[in-house]
Amino acid sequence: MNTVTVKNTVLGEGRPKIAVPLAAEDSDGLQSALQGLQGLPFDVAELRADFLKQAADAGYVMDCLRQVRAALPDKPLLFTFRRAEEGGRCPVAQDDYFALVQAAIRSGWADMVDIELFAGEAQVKESAALAKSHGVAALLCNHDFDATPPKEEIIARLQTMQDWGADICKIAVMPQSPADVLVLLDAAQTMFRHYAKQPLVAVAMGKMGVISRLAGGTFGSAMTFGAATKASAPGQIAVNDLRTVLDILADEAV
């Protein structure tokens, strides 16, 4: 399996990396969220642009991205605009969604961009290729807030992400039972052992799925998401608690 190096962070090697979402409504809130990161043990910062009240204003969104880059010059920065169809805060037309994603790629401020698998095949492939041409890692993803697909379907979606140009493949599902969490983790392990060409991220959301955020690395997941102050998805836990558990699982606790 290939690894992906973003700044000095290597995804797909060692312990899972911790990504911290910045979920603010405006520039002032974003500055407050950035201050809240001080001293926290995280590896990747994620700008959740769909949380912004002016998320439909591309110029405003890019200025917020610039602010995050200026505040965190040495940290890998992931740009994410989550569509309402996959649990995001701001409904946008398909063309506007891809315009934002591609603006982030061209800006020079994002190291990684989140691209939703089911947003449109041609534009997903086009955006992934554009990211590669600009030295930006393409994180293709899929979020199911209603259910957990069968194991075979989870693997098929991850494989499609690879085929469409993903540098990192991510899937997040909503378990309805503990058995669903096992389905997600089994799919991740099978993908990791037999089919993965790129690093993968597999998350079961909600309280029931917290174990996948803590122990996902055991099953092949290369990154997990933890909350600094405001969670961006159900089941995210505090970064410090997350780091403690990852240290324990890596047998590196101090």
Automatic annotation (TrEMBL):
Enzyme class: lyase
Molecular function terms, GO-annotated: 3-dehydroquinate dehydratase activity
Keyword annotations of the record: Amino-acid biosynthesis, Aromatic amino acid biosynthesis, Lyase, Schiff base
Pfam families: DHquinase_I
Keyword Membrane listed: no
Gene3D superfamilies noted in UniProt: Aldolase class I
Binding site for 3-dehydroquinate: E46, L47, R48, R82, R213, S232, Q236
UniProt-listed InterPro entries: Aldolase_TIM, DHquinase_I, Type-I_3-dehydroquinase
The protein's annotated pathway: Metabolic intermediate biosynthesis; chorismate biosynthesis; chorismate from D-erythrose 4-phosphate and phosphoenolpyruvate: step 3/7
The enzyme's E.C. designation: 4.2.1.10
Similarity remark: Belongs to the type-I 3-dehydroquinase family.
Function: Involved in the third step of the chorismate pathway, which leads to the biosynthesis of aromatic amino acids. Catalyzes the cis-dehydration of 3-dehydroquinate (DHQ) and introduces the first double bond of the aromatic ring to yield 3-dehydroshikimate.
Designated name of the protein: 3-dehydroquinate dehydratase
Species of the source: Neisseria musculi
Gene behind this protein: aroD
